[in-house]
Amino acid sequence: MLSTHLDEARRFARRELGGLAGSGEPATTLRTTLKCYLDTERSLNPTAELLHVARNTVAYRIQRAEQLRGREIKVRRMHLQVALALAEEFGDLVLSEQATAR
Predict the structure, then answer these.
(1) Stated pTM of the model
(2) Under a CB-based contact definition with an 8 Å cutoff, are residues 49 and 57 in contact?
(3) How far is residue 51 CA from its own chain's centroid?
(4) Could you read off the pLDDT tens digit of each residue along the chain, which spans 102 residues?
């Protein structure tokens, strides 16, 4: 539903992601890690294996993601998962501050 209303999707994603809505590589890496972590039912070891990084790297990235987001991942978790899915699927269309014409 949100994908058909990009302005609403953009506001929603940016609100839920906070500082994770950035377009640079660090924000993208944190979003990818966070999405994988949530997809694996918040388990560090499977996330580390899937991303081919150390368990402590995953733990650090999750902590950093919470700092940038401005709240713990358990707060509005379902909303966060939707925002991460939108960011993964639509990228700059939902992450940019301004609408992008296509």
Answers:
(1) 0.88
(2) no
(3) 15
(4) 556 788 888 999 999 999 999 888 999 999 999 999 999 999 999 999 999 999 999 999 999 999 999 999 999 999 999 999 999 998 888 888 764 444
